Amino acid sequence: MAEASSVPAAEDEQGTAAGGPAAGGLPGPGRPPGPAADAPTVLVESSVPVESSVPVEGPVPVGGRGPAAGWRMLAGRLARGLGELLITAGIVVALFLAYQLWVTDVFAARTQDRLHRQLDQAWRQPPAPRAPAGDRARPVPPPVDLGDGLAILRVPRFGRGYSPVVVEGVAAADLRRGPGHIPGTAMPGQLGNFVVSGHRTTYGKPFSRLDELKVGDPLVVEVRDRYYSYRVTGSEVVAPNRVDVTYPVPKRPGVAPTKDLITLTTCHPKFSASHRLIVYGELVDTAAKSAEVPPGLGGE
Amino acid sequence: MYAWLYRHLPGPPRLRLALAVVAVLAIVALLMFVVFPAVETVLPNGQVTLGD
Fold first, then answer.
1. Predicted ipTM?
2. Are strands A218-222 and A192-197 parallel, antiparallel or unpaired?
3. Which of A31, A110, A174, A260 fits A283 for a cystine, CB–CB 3.0-4.6 Å?
4. What share of chain A is helix, strand, coil (3-state, %, to 5)?
5. What DSSP line would sit under A38-84, residue for residue?
6. What residues of A are in contact with residue B44 (Cβ under 8 Å)?
7. A12–B15: do the CB atoms touch at under 8 Å?
8. Inter-chain contact B49–A48, Cβ cutoff 8 Å?
9. Nearest Cβ partner of B49 from A40, A51, A182?
10. Which residues form the domain of A178?
């Protein structure tokens, strides 16, 4: 540092820009203690202590027997290399923690912003031509590509800012984008069970507070032209293999649904795969988008 | 290891320092964008759906 400041800045810049010979020639007289800069190949061994200040060449002044000194040097190098590897491993683990706790949130936030914009845009376009059959009460939502947004979930208990875009699909790549709708289960407002899985930790952790929901809490699902208001009817913690909670009528295989249900799933406890936290709800109200405030969000 | 790597970087100290910083950033980027996303799929906190 000190030697760098003693050299005029412009001169140093020129030397660097000019390339090898000039750069090697300049610092020579001005900086006697830096031989390693121009002759690394010649002085590989002797430059070790200069840069590292580790007493690798300690055995020389001690003047002990050759083999013992060699062994000590080798052991020192091995120990040092091992130490550096362990420190590196520690840093990588720390980086991975930072990645999991913060970086994935940043990724997910950016993806969610993009999904919000895409949904806004898509919903402003005129809807795709609907099947002429006049069942106006239950419009059939168009199919959504995997990874694309299909609805916005709002949960007043999680605050007004809580509005993750629900994407289609529950593959790892889909869930990184947002809570995922399990393909094949009902779409919002369809008869049956609208099942959504989301991360409890990492990637924006959209379902981290699912355990705070209480019976009667509103869950509002916003689609192109309407708000579907569900109420929480219960929750439970189940084993990971309990696929039956995603059935059209949860835990009743083969039974035809008579209600519009919603089921949210996430992992439980946090950072664990041992169980799943399931929250059930049922549709209580549907409102057209023209309504200023969606039902369930108004009374907050 | 690191001393050895640093010694084998070409150029004057400033260039070496810049190269070292670039190398570290490249490795961190590789970890964040490629290695960690691949590794985390086997971690328990990504398993939020039902199934075997």
1. 0.90
2. unpaired
3. A260
4. 40, 20, 45
5. T-TTTTTTTHHHHHH---TTTHHHHT--HHHHHHHHHHHHHHHHHHH
6. 267, 271-274
7. no
8. no
9. A182
10. 146-288
State the pLDDT confidence band at A31, using cuts at 50, 70 and 90. very low
Please state the pTM of the whole predicted model: 0.72
Residues of B in contact with A16 (CB under 8 A): 11-12, 14-15
- Whole-angstrom Cα distance, residue B17 to residue B9? 9
pLDDT in tens, A200-257: 999 999 999 999 999 999 999 999 889 999 999 999 999 999 999 999 999 999 889 9
Q: Is residue A140 part of a domain?
A: no
Is the minimum CB–CB distance between B5 and chain A shorter than 8 Å?
no
Question: CB of B40 within 8 Å of any CB in chain A?
Answer: yes
Q: Is residue A217 part of a domain?
A: yes
**Which SS3 state, helix, strand or coil, does residue A97 take?**
helix
At A296 the pLDDT is 59
Domain boundaries, chain B: 1-25
In a domain, A156, yes or no: yes
**Structural domains in chain A (count):** 1
CATH code, domain carrying A246: 2.40.260.10
Residues A144-162: pLDDT tens digits? 889 999 999 999 999 999 9
